[in-house]
Design goal:
0% strand
């Protein structure tokens, strides 16, 4: 997760022309956001897995991932001092690619 998300942030820094954001600060933001949200996601998913029928698992994962995107976007906006649109794009793309990389590995 860390490798994928931080790599995406670094690439997106250039795509979105966020050169005013220092690379070191961007890497720190990516690591911090992931290290805070990943354990929470795994905790919630493990609890929900045992409570919901299998049919609802996918929807639960989508809702949890959307919450993570929102939380991380808010963090990026504040910590990196960037606009909300860029923060949302960073978070969304990093989390989508991280999710699919995780699915491929499992």
């Amino acid at each position: 997760t860390l490798l994928v998300e931080v790599s995406v942030l670094v690439i997106m820094r250039y795509i979105l022309k966020l050169t005013e954001v220092k690379l070191r600060r961007l890497i720190l933001a990516g690591c911090t956001a992931s290290l805070i949200t990943l354990p929470v996601v795994w905790f919630i998913v493990q609890r929900v897995w045992t409570l919901l029928p299998v049919d609802f698992y996918f929807y639960c994962v989508v809702v949890i991932e959307l919450l993570v995107v929102a939380l991380e976007a808010r963090f990026y906006k504040s910590f990196l001092e960037i606009n909300a649109k860029h923060a949302f794009l960073l978070s969304l793309i990093a989390n989508v690619l991280s999710y699919f990389a995780g699915v491929q590995l499992l």
